[in-house]
Amino acid sequence: MEIIVNGQEETVAPCTIAHLVASKGLAPGALVVECNRQIIKQEQWQAIELKAGDRLELLSFVGGG
Amino acid sequence: MKNDVLQLGGVTFTNRLFTGTGKFAANALIPQMLAASGSQMITVALRRIDATAQSENILAFIPKNVTLLPNTSGARTAEQAVRIARIAREAGCGDFIKIEVITDMKYLMPDNWETLKATEILAKEGFIVLPYVLPDLPLAKRLESAGAAAVMPLGAPIGSNRGLETRPLLELLIENCRVPVVVDAGIGRPSQAAAAMEMGADAVLVNTAIATAKDPVAMGRAFDQAVKAGRAAYLAELADQSDLARASSPLTGFLDE
Known about the structure:
The complex is a heterodimer. Chain A is mainly β. Chain A has a single domain, classed as Ubiquitin-like (UB roll) (Roll), CATH 3.10.20.30. Helix content of chain A is 11%, strand content 38%. Chain A has one helix and five strands. Chain A has one helix at 17-23, and strands at residues 2-5, 8-11, 31-35, 38-40, 55-63. The longest helix of chain A has 7 residues, at 17-23. In chain B, helix 4 (137-146) links the parallel strand 7 and strand 8. Chain B has helices at residues 29-37, 78-93, 112-124, 137-146, 167-176, 190-199, 208-211, 216-236, and strands spanning 6-8, 11-13, 17-20, 41-48, 67-70, 96-99, 128-133, 152-153, 182-184, 203-206. Chain B has one domain (20-48, 56-236): Aldolase class I (TIM Barrel, Alpha-Beta Barrel). Chain B is 36% helix and 16% strand. Chain B is built from eight helices and ten strands. The A-B interface holds A 6-7, 24-27, 29-32, 34, 37, 39, 41, 57-65 and B 20-24, 27, 43-49, 51, 55-60, 70-71, 73, 83, 86-88, 90-91, 93, 158-159, 185, 205, 207-208, 211. Strand 5 (55-63) of chain A pairs antiparallel with strand 4 (41-48) of chain B, so a sheet runs across the interface.
């Protein structure tokens, strides 16, 4: 199915947010996930199954002034 | 001086140097700089992850006793700034937010109009809002009415290290605002930070000048000393200046008169 991750279309097998994060090799500690403009707390990543057309933002804090 | 503290959104700051996490050669310098400068508030930004780069968690380099000030950099509209602020709070960064909305990519001037709109929304949602703006007194009064916890006017363009180019306008804000005035952006030297504090600024925010100094830790310490000196001078009330010389001793009673 197609989902949009950080503005880019991606084809993924049905999975949870936790699975997607792991499959990308991202360290969960620093990651902030927004799905369809809703912030998804890390405790919920296991429980939420991605659906076709979901718009995900994978964000992290960086240096800034 | 002992009880000279800055209150923002119910948090008490005994140090008036706010710092930033941008542009450090290594993140490990950040906690060292914080220790050397005594800074109790530091900015961070939020960005999409770069899956191709191994990135460190910048929050891991900030001690827990330092207040996080996430900024909304990257926002070009009030709506985007509001969205970033909500994400930062959800992500556990607390209630402080520096609103930074930039539509002018040539000079990186803050968009005061969008910033005001974002302030109105976020203050209602309980954020402690610190808007980064061009120094404009009527706008600053509107920000106050909208619930801003402070106003953060620029001294010079971001990262320019040119100092207090907006000085006369900053003076108007300092004299007339009820909320604290934090001079943000453009301060390139400790002497410029001291000058801002002498004028009566409540705090300064310095990133580039510290982070890109050859020794950022020592420069953090230098800025702390400058901010303290400037604040002490403001509280001591500066002596008058005059166009003509005024002798320090009586001009009478000389030898051989």
